[in-house]
Write a structure and sequence with these properties.
This protein is an all-alpha fold. The longest helix has 21 residues. The model has no long low-confidence stretch (mean pLDDT 89).
């Protein structure tokens, strides 16, 4: 890529990632992106044929390292299923803390190309975590299971918590449903859920969001608005 193309791409990513976080996916228009980036629409389309292509760049950063982070919380002594439970519980918690991030996750789990990225990157993790329950399964088998559990994740993310469906119930319901798909024994399911219930998921998810935003600011050279940063410190009732 020529130097001017690299600079244009950097400008687009810097503006677009910031707007996605501050305004949400649907409210971030291509017109607003090109205006703030100071480029022509043609230059934008040369780099990113669709807005979805920019979202893919953001999703790669968001999903990078999530399982390793979850393993650091669950520890080395506990079975791998604990890391799966922690990782998915944090994702669900994040969507309750920030509505724009909820929208980004929902789009990521909906758009075909980005879904495929998630499927492929999660499949290897699932084989490692749940392989003992499916000794004869190949990666293709786990890929097919991931399609189903990703749909389950999206559905639970889309349903906002309320007095009729409180946060703790959402986490428990999702973990129970997903672990049953992976044939985790009922007794072990209860132990895993009890472990996750004992975590301060809101504090952990808030820290994950803060680290994500700081990483994005450094990677794409932008600064989030004070209002967006302030929203991170507001403890929502979930």
């Amino acid at each position: 890529m020529r130097k001017d193309g690299i600079e244009t791409r950097k400008k687009i990513l810097s503006v677009c990632v910031r707007l996605l976080i501050e305004q949400g996916y649907k409210e971030t228009s291509v017109s607003r992106i090109v205006e703030e980036a100071g480029i022509s629409r043609g230059s934008y389309q040369n780099q990113f044929p669709t807005k979805d292509a920019v979202l893919m760049e953001l999703v790669k950063t968001m999903f990078g390292g999530q399982f390793s982070m979850a393993r650091s919380i669950s520890g080395e002594k506990l079975p791998p299923v604990y890391a799966y439970a922690v990782e998915t519980a944090i994702q669900l918690t994040i969507t309750e803390l920030n509505e724009n991030i909820r929208e980004i996750y929902l789009e990521a789990y909906t758009l075909p190309n980005i879904c495929e990225y998630i499927y492929l990157n999660t499949t290897a993790e699932l084989k490692q975590i749940f392989g003992k329950y499916f000794p004869d399964y190949s990666e293709s088998d786990f890929y097919e299971l991931e399609i189903g559990t990703a749909g389950l994740m999206r559905s639970y993310m889309a349903k906002k918590c309320s007095i009729h469906f409180p946060f703790n119930r959402k986490i428990e319901r999702f973990l129970t449903a997903s672990m049953r798909i992976f044939k985790v024994p009922e007794e072990e399911q209860q132990e895993v859920i009890a472990f996750v219930s004992g975590l301060d998921l809101k504090a952990i998810a808030t820290e994950v969001l803060q680290n994500l935003f700081e990483s994005l600011e450094m990677k794409y050279d932008f600064k989030l608005s004070p209002e967006t940063e302030a929203n991170l410190t507001i403890q929502k009732s979930i």
